[in-house]
């Protein structure tokens, strides 16, 4: 039997699981801070990370923990439309025998015992189990193959209503964050389940930072962002 102690906690722009990018680096505007926890909250633990551009983050899917007696041998990955089952070990599904994930993030800067990172695909308050440097010559394999996900999915067009765009500008100034870029990068990957065919009257929503973003799928195609408002508590 093994037990693990988180070394850090992630403060993320993503407040809900829905609409989080399904892979890291697909939304460069997605930012967060990795805050070291005791007894690792000492700058000495980060010595040597200066000049390193990317990190491997081992983390816990803290909102996808299965019951102790639940065994999922097959899952339905979104990449296959959510209807086809494949073996759990051939996917990066959050529903795993052990709720552990692996993600690569860009290291923007270090301040004290905080790592400022971008390109994240992690939920706010995610426990971090380990941090390792990305090593380009061995971690990027030129001939690597994955027939299930041979390339990045096609992006869809994201438009903003005039009211939503005005609000985005205000919130960017207030938060000092790339609100418009994040919304575009997040929604262009089409977060709804692939098997779902929504009508133009169906409204979707998600929370990022302290905002709630609402959008729909108009008959003309793509996504139309309807509103970007401070989320109600």
Secondary-structure blueprint:
Layout lengths: L7 E5 L18 E6 L17 E7 L13 E2 L10 E2 L12 E12 L2 E5 L7 E8 L2 H4 L18 E3 L1 H14 L3 H9 L16 E5 L2 E6 L6 E8 L3
Parallel strand pairs: 9-12
Antiparallel strand pairs: 1-2, 1-8, 2-7, 3-6, 3-8, 4-5, 6-7, 10-11, 11-12
Descriptive report:
This protein starts with 7 loop residues before the first strand and ends with a strand. It has 3 helices and 12 strands, in the order E-E-E-E-E-E-E-E-H-E-H-H-E-E-E. It is mainly beta. The radius of gyration is 19 Å and the shape is globular. It folds into 2 domains: about 10-65 and about 100-140, Elongation Factor Tu (Ef-tu), domain 3 (Beta Barrel), CATH 2.40.30; about 160-230, 2-Layer Sandwich (YaeB-like fold), CATH 3.30.2310. It has helices at about 135-140, 160-175, 180-185; strands at about 10, 30-35, 55-60, 75, 85, 100-110, 115-120, 125-135, 160, 205-210, 210-215, 225-230. Strand 6 (about 100-110) and strand 7 (about 115-120) form a beta hairpin. The strands form 3 sheets. The protein has a 6-stranded antiparallel beta barrel with strand order 1-2-7-6-3-8. It has a 4-stranded mixed beta sheet with strand order 9-12-11-10.
Question: What does this entry show, briefly?
Answer:
The protein has 2 domains: 8-64 and 99-139, YaeB-like (Elongation Factor Tu (Ef-tu), domain 3); 158-230, 2-Layer Sandwich (YaeB-like fold), CATH 3.30.2310.
Number of helices: 3
- Multimerization state: single chain
CATH topology of the largest domain: Elongation Factor Tu (Ef-tu), domain 3
What is the number of beta strands? 12
> Which bin fits the share of residues in helices?
10-25%
CATH second-level architecture of the largest domain: Beta Barrel
Question: How many discrete structural domains?
Answer: 2
- Per CATH, the class of the largest domain reads Mainly Beta
Mean pLDDT: 90
CA-based gyration radius: 19 Å
User: Which regions have little confidence, pLDDT < 50, spanning 5+ residues?
Assistant: none
Q: Can you say what the CATH homologous superfamily of the largest domain is?
A: YaeB-like
Strand order in space, largest sheet: 1-2-7-6-3-8
The helix-and-strand class reads mainly beta
Secondary-structure element series:
EEEEEEEEHEHHEEE
**Which range does the strand content fall in?**
25-35%
The largest β sheet comes out as: 6 strands, antiparallel, barrel
Shape: globular
């Amino acid at each position: 039997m093994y037990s693990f102690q988180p070394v850090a906690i992630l403060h993320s722009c993503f407040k809900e699981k829905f609409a989080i990018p399904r892979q890291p680096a697909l939304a460069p505007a997605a930012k967060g801070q990795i805050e070291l926890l005791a007894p690792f909250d000492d700058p000495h633990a980060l010595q040597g990370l200066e000049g390193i551009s990317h990190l491997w983050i081992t983390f816990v899917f803290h909102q996808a923990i299965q019951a102790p007696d639940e065994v999922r041998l097959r899952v339905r990955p979104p990449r296959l439309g959510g209807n086809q089952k494949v073996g759990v070990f051939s996917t990066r599904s959050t529903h795993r025998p052990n709720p552990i994930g692996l993600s690569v993030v860009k290291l923007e800067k270090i301040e004290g015992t905080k790592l400022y990172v971008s390109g994240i695909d992690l939920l706010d308050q995610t426990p971090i189990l380990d941090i390792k440097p990305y090593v380009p010559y061995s971690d990027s394999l030129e001939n690597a193959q994955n027939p299930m996900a041979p390339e990045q999915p096609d992006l869809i067009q994201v438009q903003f209503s005039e009211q939503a765009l005005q609000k985005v500008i205000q919130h960017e100034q207030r938060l000092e964050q790339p609100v418009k870029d994040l919304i575009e990068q997040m929604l262009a990957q089409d977060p709804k389940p692939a098997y779902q065919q929504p009508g133009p009257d169906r409204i979707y929503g998600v929370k990022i930072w302290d905002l709630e973003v609402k959008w729909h799928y108009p008959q003309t195609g793509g996504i139309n962002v309807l509103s970007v408002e401070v989320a109600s508590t």
